[in-house]
Write a structure and sequence with these properties.
Length: 248
């Protein structure tokens, strides 16, 4: 059964310990390969957990989480090896001397029998009873795990703080965007009204200037008509005798 710490260090997609974990904009982490595989079959770069669309095309490597996972895997492997030594090996005999493993060599980090202790291979090595070594290693492992849990808790608090800051930044950005749109909408409306008013003023001014010119044109037409009529009337007596002479 997986521990709570191991569950926290599992990728939500593959349900295994993170491998090359990456962090996306919604603050969820995934194995790099798992996220790429998920995105390759979806039309959007959405989060496999919360379905929010990621704002980043290239997710950042979560170095802190990667270090935690590497340390946890090493400790887990060591713990499993130690359990094998403490549980299985004492019931077995030394393959070299056919004696039970009653000691643990601190220099070679392996179980040994009483004959191994006196052999040349373990000359001047340090030994302790295998049960005592198991308890010591369990204690060291527990302290390491507790330290990792504390560090993970602190990292989670920092992550939550960062998420809150990012959420607040997003809220501020959306509010600012809305304010800018409203201001520009009002500005566009003002400019449209100002344009309409100025065009109307120009047209009115044009009409005001045209009225006197039209009146002058009408007066000029009247004068020209009067002159034309006068010229025509005065020209007729001079032309009539000439016509009579042509008839004779």
């Amino acid at each position: 059964m997986a521990s709570r710490l191991e569950e926290d260090l599992c990728c939500p997609v593959c349900q295994d310990i993170f491998k090359d974990p990456v962090l996306i904009s919604c603050s969820h982490s995934f194995c790099k390969e798992c996220l790429q595989s998920f995105w390759s079959v979806t039309s959007r770069r959405s989060c496999p957990v919360c379905r929010k669309v990621s704002a980043e095309d290239a997710p950042r490597c979560n170095l802190a989480l990667k270090k935690f996972c590497d340390t946890f895997l090493k400790q887990k492997e060591f713990n499993e090896t130690l359990s094998d030594w403490c549980v299985v090996q004492p019931a077995e005999t030394c393959s070299l001397h056919d004696e039970k493993h009653e000691l643990f060599c601190l220099d070679h980090q392996e179980p040994a029998c009483l004959v191994c202790r006196d052999s040349e291979r373990h000359s001047q090595h340090r030994f302790m009873p295998v049960g005592e070594a198991a308890r010591q290693h369990r204690k060291d492992l527990q302290e390491t795990l507790e330290s990792l849990k504390k560090q993970l808790g602190l990292k989670k608090e920092v992550q939550e703080d960062i998420c809150q800051v990012m959420e607040h930044m997003g809220f501020q950005a959306r509010r600012t965007e809305t304010q800018i749109k409203e201001q520009f909408k009002k500005l566009h409306q003002f400019l449209a009204e100002e344009e309409e008013a100025r065009l109307a003023a120009v047209k009115e001014e044009e009409e005001q200037r045209r009225d006197p010119m039209r009146e002058k044109l009408r007066a000029l037409f009247r004068q020209m008509k009067t002159i034309s009529d006068t010229v025509r009337c005065r020209s007729m007596p001079a032309e009539t005798p000439h016509l009579f002479q042509m008839q004779v």
